[in-house]
C-alpha cells in the first residue's frame, strides 16, 4: 500500500516540494526546535546527524529525534554514519566495527549490526549509512580499516550479514558505490581516478554490493569517485553508474549521494558551484542528496527547480526519485504508527 500512497501523494506536490523532499541536511548542535524547523520549514526529506548532534546519553538523543515529525503521514528520515570502529558517531555504541569484524566469523557481523541497529532504533535514528561494501587488500588505503573483507569472496557474506542484522530496525545503506577500495585516495579531498573497466569491476567490486542488495538493503550511497573507463564523471554524478546499479544489479531502492560538500572540498573548479553539483546529481538519478554542511540550501533547491523547468532535468527523473523517497518515508511512518491499518 506504500506504493499507492506515494503515487497519490506525489500528485499533490508542487515541483518545489518534490525537489525539497530530496534533500537530507544537517542542523548544527543540540537544538531540537532547530532540527524540527530545518525539516518542516522547507519540507526536506530529513536530517543527517554528526558528532555535534549527539548528546551525552541515549535518552537525550531519543528526546531530540522524537521532536522531529511531519505529522502528515510521512516520517522525516533521520540518518547517521554509524559503522562502528573508525566511524562511530554515538559514544554509547560499543559494538564491533569492521576493523575487528573483518577477521571474525560472519555471525559476529550480524550480531554487531543487530546490536547497533537496536540502539539506533531506540534513539530514533531510521537510516544507518553504516555498511561499507567496498573491498580492498591495501593497508595503505584510508578505507582499509572500514571494509568487512579484503576481497569480494570474504566481504560479501559479511555485507549480507550486516544488512540482515539491521533488518526491520533501521534502513540499511551500502556504500560507497561502485566501490572505493580500488583507490587509496580520499574522496573527502579529491575525486579518485580509477583505471578499472566494467569487466574488472564486476569481478572485484560488484559482488559485495550485490550481496547487500540481495539481502534487502534499502539504500545505496554513491561515492564521489570516477572509474574513468566507464565514465570520467564521479559516480555520484553519473547516469551510467545509476543505470548499472538498477539494470545490472537489480536495485530498486533509494539512491543517495555521499556528502555533496565533498565535491566542493576537492578544490577542483568543475565542482566549485554547489548548485551545479546538485543539478548534476539529480539529473544522474540520485533520489536523495546529502549535505553535512548545507550552505544556502534554499538557493540550491531553487536551482534544481529551475533546471527541471528549463528542461535540463527530466521531470520524470524527479518523480521517480521522489516516489521512492515517499515510499521509504511512508514505510517508516507506518512502523512508528503500528495501529494504522495501512
Give an overview in words.
This protein has helices spanning 2-10, 15-20, 32-40, 58-66, 98-101, 106-122, 152-166, 198-204, 206-214, 239-248, 261-265, 274-284, 297-309, 315-336; strands at 23-25, 46-49, 77-80, 127-132, 171-177, 193-194, 219-222, 226-227, 254-257, 289-291. It has 342 residues and is an alpha/beta fold. The chain has one domain (22-336): TIM Barrel, CATH 3.20.20. α7 links the parallel β4 (127-132) and β5 (171-177). α12 (274-284) packs across α13. The model has no long low-confidence stretch (mean pLDDT 96).
Strand-pairing-aware structural class: alpha/beta
Task: Tell me the β content.
Answer: 5-15%
Approximate shape: globular
Number of strands: 10
CATH superfamily: Glycoside hydrolase, family 3, N-terminal domain
Q: Report the C-alpha radius of gyration, rounded.
A: 19 Å
> What is the level-2 CATH architecture name?
Alpha-Beta Barrel
Percent in helix: 40-55%
Primary descriptors:
single chain; 342 residues; alpha/beta; TIM Barrel; eight-stranded parallel β-sheet; two-stranded parallel sheet; 14 helices
Offer a quick outline of the entry.
Helices cover 43% and strands 11% of the residues.
Amino acid at each position: 500500500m506504500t506504493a499507492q500512497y506515494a503515487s497519490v501523494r506525489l500528485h499533490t506536490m508542487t515541483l518545489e516540494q518534490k525537489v525539497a523532499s530530496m534533500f537530507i541536511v544537517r542542523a548544527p548542535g543540540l537544538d531540537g526546535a532547530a532540527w524540527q524547523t530545518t525539516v518542516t520549514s522547507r519540507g526536506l526529506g530529513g536530517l543527517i546527524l554528526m558528532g555535534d548532534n549527539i548528546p551525552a546519553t541515549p535518552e537525550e538523543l531519543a528526546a531530540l529525534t522524537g521532536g522531529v515529525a511531519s505529522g502528515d503521514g510521512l516520517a522525516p528520515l533521520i540518518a547517521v554514519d554509524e559503522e562502528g570502529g573508525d566511524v562511530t558517531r554515538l559514544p554509547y555504541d560499543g559494538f564491533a566495527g569492521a576493523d575487528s569484524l573483518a577477521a571474525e566469523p560472519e555471525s559476529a557481523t550480524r550480531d554487531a549490526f543487530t546490536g547497533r541497529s537496536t540502539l539506533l532504533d531506540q534513539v530514533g535514528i531510521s537510516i544507518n549509512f553504516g555498511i561499507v561494501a567496498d573491498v580492498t587488500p591495501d593497508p595503505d588505503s584510508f578505507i582499509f580499516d572500514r571494509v568487512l573483507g579484503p576481497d569480494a569472496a570474504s566481504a560479501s557474506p559479511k555485507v549480507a550479514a550486516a544488512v540482515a542484522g539491521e533488518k526491520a530496525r533501521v534502513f540499511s545503506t551500502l556504500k560507497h558505490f561502485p566501490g572505493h577500495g580500488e583507490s587509496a585516495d580520499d574522496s573527502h579531498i579529491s575525486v579518485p581516478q580509477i583505471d578499472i573497466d566494467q569487466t574488472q569491476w564486476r569481478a572485484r567490486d560488484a559482488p559485495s554490493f550485490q550481496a547487500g542488495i540481495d539481502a534487502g538493503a534499502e539504500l545505496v550511497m554513491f561515492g564521489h569517485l570516477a572509474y574513468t573507463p566507464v565514465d570520467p564523471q564521479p559516480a555520484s554524478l553519473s547516469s551510467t553508474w545509476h543505470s548499472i546499479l538498477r539494470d545490472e544489479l537489480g536495485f530498486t531502492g533509494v539512491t543517495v549521494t555521499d556528502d555533496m560538500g565533498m565535491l566542493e572540498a576537492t578544490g577542483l573548479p568543475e565542482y566549485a558551484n554547489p548548485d551545479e553539483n546538485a543539478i548534476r546529481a539529480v539529473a544522474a538519478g540520485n533520489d536523495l542528496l546529502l549535505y553535512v554542511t548545507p550552505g544556502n540550501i534554499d538557493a540550491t533547491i531553487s536551482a534544481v527547480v529551475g533546471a527541471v523547468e528549463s528542461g535540463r532535468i527530466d521531470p520524470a527523473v524527479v518523480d521517480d526519485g521522489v516516489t521512492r523517497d515517499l515510499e521509504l518515508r511512508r514505510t517508516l511512518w507506518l512502523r512508528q504508527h503500528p495501529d494504522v491499518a495501512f
